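Risk mitigation, structural track. In case the binding assays with S-adenosylmethionine fail to produce interpretable data, a predicted complex structure has been prepared as a fallback.
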Amino acid sequence: MKRRPRLGQHFLTDASVIQQIVTTTAPGAGEHFVEIGPGRGALTGPLLSRGAIVHAVEIDPALAQGLRASFPHERLSVHLADALEFDYAALKIPDLRLIGNLPYYLSTPLLFRLLESAAGFRDMTVMLQREVAERLCAPPGSRRYGRLSVTAAVRCRAEPCFSVAPVAFEPPPKVHSMVVRLTPDSRYRIHRPDTFDRVVRQAFSQRRKTVANALRGLADREQITTAGIDPTKRPEQIDVEAYLRLSEHLD
Ligand code: SAM
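Fallback model:
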């Protein structure tokens, strides 16, 4: 089957890594999984053999057809679709789980999209390039802390699980990978999601500036101070609660 490198097609071939992902995910019989980018079925097969019900979303028609042929299973439905556009809520499945060895060219926009609808999932286990995984899980004050970390932390617990070397894939990618588990939680209430996203996006678009300078035009010094934020701090020193408070203080 022809491989399409532009679609991030690096297939997992290392049986011990596949086993490690399945053990981390612990699929149960009868549980519903969305699988993003099933490819040749390295994860689909083990999910099905453990009794899970798989809703696979694959953009490549040849791979989607190959998957149906390799796993003619009533518990597998293959959606020929772009995972970025797919309407996950339309599946109307409560307690839906998500798994995927994500196509790396798309992982950041896809994560933002999945985080937006995180509350609709019980959990998400995803393989990412290590640098993106580190941004996703970074705590305030660290080098990698940014818009992705804040967007994740306000909706989920993000845990790095284990690293995966390039040799585990065929063909090997240029970078190391990492499996991350996201568990949505309701610790924080986002009353104004659009404002929150606007604040965080603008703050981190100029991360070398002070938060007061970075947010110029959106929040003034007084609003920043009223939200309990020191305006001379840098955007990466501000935690999720403070960004939430600020988004609620804006008109
Ligand atoms: N799960 C397989 C594995 O682990 O071997 C394949 C993973 S490969 C890194 C990424 C997969 O995502 C490929 O099958 C690719 O065709 C698919 N893909 C790429 N872009 C996609 C998109 N926008 N929507 C859905 N699938 C996509």
